[in-house]
Amino acid sequence: AKWVYTFGDGKAEGQSSMRNLLGGKGANLAEMSNLGLPVPPGFTITTEVCTYFYDHGRQYPPDLKDQVDAALDAVGRLTGRRFGDSETPLLVSVRSGARASMPGMMDTVLNLGLNDTTVEALARGSGDPRFAYDSYRRFITMYSNVVLGVEHHTFEEALEHYKEAKGLDLDTDLSAQDWKHLIGEYKGIVKRALGQDFPQDPQAQLWGAIGAVFGSWMNPRANKYRELHNIPANWGTAVNVQAMVFGNMGDTSATGVAFTRNPSTGEKALYGEFLINAQGEDVVAGIRTPQDITEAARIESGSDKPSMEKAMPEAYAELVRIYGLLENHYRDMQDMEFTVENGKLWMLQTRNGKRTAKAALRIAVELAGEGLISQEEAIGRVEPASLDQLLHPTIDPKAERRVIATGLPASPGAACGEIVFNSEEAEAAKKAERKVILVRVETSPEDIHGMHAAEGILTTRGGMTSHAAVVARGMGKPCVSGVGAIRVDYNARTLSVGGVTLKAGDLITIDGSNGQVIQGEMPMLEPELSGDFATLMDWADQVRTMKVRANAETPADARAARSFGAEGIGLSRTEHMFFDEGRITAVREMILADDAEGRRGALAKLLPYQRADFVELFTIMSGLPVTIRLLDPPLHEFLPKEEEVGAFAAETGLSADKLRRRMTELDETNPMLGFRGCRLAILFPEIAEMQARAIFEAAVEAAKRTGAPVIPEVMVPLVFTKAEFDLVKARIDAMAKAVAQESGSKVEYQVGTMIELPRAALRAGDIAETAEFFSFGTNDLTQTTLGISRDDAGTFLGSYTKNGILTSDPFVSIDQEGVGELVKLGAERGRAVRPGLKLGICGEHGGDPASIAFCQEVGLDYVSCSPYRVPIARLAAAQAAL
Ligand code: PEP
Ligand code: MG
């Protein structure tokens, strides 16, 4: 079998479409070679080797070694060098590269092939011993850390001590002799830590590094990342081995990263950072402050260090040429890594760049504007769920800010919370429902869980491409990075800056859009949704076929929903209207009454509230459909708590004993399967009658007020048989007639039902004989189909998804095979009886992109979701329609 694919010198055995086999990095290195771009020659060991490795007890395919040797020879021929040669040694980098970029895995080993002999050859060949020893010490620390598992900081400490003793400040102040001395110390550290010498044999080094890449595929951090991002373990990673080019060969050499468009804002301009006389890890590690690429960016940042445009005009011009070429070729924003060796630019990587939602929108809209992609492609370029980032609040600009420091605006949005200094505390706080800001000197892949748990992330080191910045942008969390002025003391659990000292637990706010760190909690503002957002939403609305409604009952929610583009209300949970002060007492009186008369008395108090609520809803949603569901309370949620009984008895004049007796009667072992839904309307028809009256009277009034007809959709919850529905519908119809007579106005309306029990889905044909619409209540349908309580699933569902028993939480993303099958069946059976039956979904799944795609397949007319998910649903519905 072919396990190794070579590239370099304007050609390659692979190409970008072979991502599954070569990984993202390998496929794009091949593609860039084919495009004739300057790529150091190398080869990719395929992901199939990784799969083989794990299928065969961590053994390699028997013919792999020969293929690797042949590929190394080929690279040697192109570079005029030989791997392990004592005169003209070939040095290589070894890097992992999965299909999807994956933090948490072994990343990079540079300068591999150096040992006590080849380092001398490198010194002779380059005429620069300092460069050679600098490369060797980098290799020892990197290899020892990522391959041999020796802690990085032990080397750092040795270096710091040495610098201190010698009175040296910067790494660049160290001479060849200094590095040579430190190399001796480093080798001693390795020997003490491992009980054996640092490997001198280049072949042993190479296979050690290859093994480390494959081994890291299954390390806990990588597993965690895959779990969070639904990446299957059997994808495997590739390994890329590539001839070294050196960015640390003095002042005509450099290394950097650049985006073809700004990954935070989407602005079309070469954007990035570079460092003169450095190797790749220096940029990411944030040890030295990187320099700007363009002169415009330098002026904006106010940096006193020259831009690449000024310092290396030829290499810069080449980068600009390549940037245009790559964008046109990939038709998307690229994230590139490059090295300049003695003035010559080399490309080490390109990939579609990660970006914020804001940038994704702008880039998609502008690429379509430039004619590089179509409007439909633009719709597909934005992850619907990521829009959430734009819907986040920002700090009220009128509020006074106590800015204590400013760092880099690494990921937009504002967040506030208590200070925590490590990821464990962040996670614990999250469990206790406390909001925190994770404050770190820098983050590493070990902090992923803490970053997830935090509202926002603050680091004192690292640039826009540091780990914290990249990961936070991916997560859509606000992040301020590189706040050098803040000093963090992990031991004392404090941060201090300019005379201010804050402790763990103190409140701070970060503004990821301008890099500010603010003491205390700030007032937030709702986001504004215009510009590119509106444009893309407009394009999405043109192609989607499903309508998007909102689940809303309060005026505030209804208004928010409408401003987000909701095309009506798909579910108004009337029981949520009863929790307000002044109402809950009447509701309790109604529930606790022993007879219909008692209930009528309480209901009479509720009628004006309900009517006023509905008038407001109909007015806000004027011209759009509004579905109102009859009361569906799990009764226990409304009953007074034991300690409230006394006060409640006093307020209502009922006897406390009698109250307790009635509460015991109503007590249910399993309220979710108890006296709720239409069961209530059937036993206590006066409740449904009051609500129907409120709905119809409100419709008449709102129509008068707005001048637009109101056609309410009255929805009956939790039916499992047509007979239940018909009983309730008869009451509603009678009330409509009564209100029409009393008001002298025409009352138009529809009566439909929720399909949220398996039996209702199965008997949808019967039910559709009289029901005028269906709305799938997939929350209860999931609960009752899987037999998993909505309220108690948390205790075990997590380990179900972790262990792969379920691919995702069925209450978040619809279980297509089971619950989905029932939805499909219900839709088909309903429409077979009543062609054109209006179908919607109003469970939480109505706002989940994967579930929305499923709804499109089934042929639903609309999805209904919470107001903040409306834009997400509009975009997801458009993508589903394409
Ligand atoms: C449902 O069950 O899916 C539904 C929307 O109703 P509720 O969540 O109010 O039970
Ligand atoms: Mg329900």
UniProtKB/TrEMBL annotation:
<comment type="similarity">
    <text>Belongs to the PEP-utilizing enzyme family.</text>
</comment>
<keyword id="KW-0479">Metal-binding</keyword>
<dbReference type="Pfam" id="PF01326">
    <property type="entry name" value="PPDK_N"/>
</dbReference>
<dbReference type="InterPro" id="IPR013815">
    <property type="entry name" value="ATP_grasp_subdomain_1"/>
</dbReference>
<feature type="binding site">
    <location>
        <position position="629"/>
    </location>
    <ligand>
        <name>substrate</name>
    </ligand>
</feature>
<dbReference type="InterPro" id="IPR015813">
    <property type="entry name" value="Pyrv/PenolPyrv_kinase-like_dom"/>
</dbReference>
<protein>
    <recommendedName>
        <fullName>Pyruvate, phosphate dikinase</fullName>
        <ecNumber>2.7.9.1</ecNumber>
    </recommendedName>
</protein>
<feature type="domain" description="PEP-utilising enzyme mobile">
    <location>
        <begin position="434"/>
        <end position="515"/>
    </location>
</feature>
<feature type="binding site">
    <location>
        <position position="780"/>
    </location>
    <ligand>
        <name>substrate</name>
    </ligand>
</feature>
<keyword id="KW-0670">Pyruvate</keyword>
<dbReference type="InterPro" id="IPR008279">
    <property type="entry name" value="PEP-util_enz_mobile_dom"/>
</dbReference>
<dbReference type="GO" id="GO:0005524">
    <property type="term" value="F:ATP binding"/>
</dbReference>
<dbReference type="GO" id="GO:0016301">
    <property type="term" value="F:kinase activity"/>
</dbReference>
<keyword id="KW-0808">Transferase</keyword>
<dbReference type="InterPro" id="IPR040442">
    <property type="entry name" value="Pyrv_kinase-like_dom_sf"/>
</dbReference>
<dbReference type="Pfam" id="PF00391">
    <property type="entry name" value="PEP-utilizers"/>
</dbReference>
<dbReference type="GO" id="GO:0050242">
    <property type="term" value="F:pyruvate, phosphate dikinase activity"/>
</dbReference>
<feature type="domain" description="Pyruvate phosphate dikinase AMP/ATP-binding">
    <location>
        <begin position="315"/>
        <end position="362"/>
    </location>
</feature>
<keyword id="KW-0067">ATP-binding</keyword>
<dbReference type="InterPro" id="IPR010121">
    <property type="entry name" value="Pyruvate_phosphate_dikinase"/>
</dbReference>
<dbReference type="GO" id="GO:0046872">
    <property type="term" value="F:metal ion binding"/>
</dbReference>
<dbReference type="InterPro" id="IPR000121">
    <property type="entry name" value="PEP_util_C"/>
</dbReference>
<keyword id="KW-0547">Nucleotide-binding</keyword>
<feature type="active site" description="Tele-phosphohistidine intermediate">
    <location>
        <position position="467"/>
    </location>
</feature>
<dbReference type="InterPro" id="IPR023151">
    <property type="entry name" value="PEP_util_CS"/>
</dbReference>
<dbReference type="InterPro" id="IPR018274">
    <property type="entry name" value="PEP_util_AS"/>
</dbReference>
<feature type="binding site">
    <location>
        <position position="779"/>
    </location>
    <ligand>
        <name>substrate</name>
    </ligand>
</feature>
<keyword id="KW-0460">Magnesium</keyword>
<feature type="domain" description="Pyruvate phosphate dikinase AMP/ATP-binding">
    <location>
        <begin position="59"/>
        <end position="298"/>
    </location>
</feature>
<feature type="domain" description="PEP-utilising enzyme C-terminal">
    <location>
        <begin position="530"/>
        <end position="880"/>
    </location>
</feature>
<feature type="binding site">
    <location>
        <position position="778"/>
    </location>
    <ligand>
        <name>substrate</name>
    </ligand>
</feature>
<dbReference type="InterPro" id="IPR002192">
    <property type="entry name" value="PPDK_AMP/ATP-bd"/>
</dbReference>
<feature type="binding site">
    <location>
        <position position="756"/>
    </location>
    <ligand>
        <name>substrate</name>
    </ligand>
</feature>
<feature type="binding site">
    <location>
        <position position="756"/>
    </location>
    <ligand>
        <name>Mg(2+)</name>
    </ligand>
</feature>
<keyword id="KW-0418">Kinase</keyword>
<feature type="binding site">
    <location>
        <position position="573"/>
    </location>
    <ligand>
        <name>substrate</name>
    </ligand>
</feature>
<feature type="active site" description="Proton donor">
    <location>
        <position position="842"/>
    </location>
</feature>
<dbReference type="InterPro" id="IPR036637">
    <property type="entry name" value="Phosphohistidine_dom_sf"/>
</dbReference>
<comment type="function">
    <text>Catalyzes the reversible phosphorylation of pyruvate and phosphate.</text>
</comment>
<feature type="binding site">
    <location>
        <position position="780"/>
    </location>
    <ligand>
        <name>Mg(2+)</name>
    </ligand>
</feature>
<dbReference type="Pfam" id="PF02896">
    <property type="entry name" value="PEP-utilizers_C"/>
</dbReference>
<feature type="binding site">
    <location>
        <position position="777"/>
    </location>
    <ligand>
        <name>substrate</name>
    </ligand>
</feature>
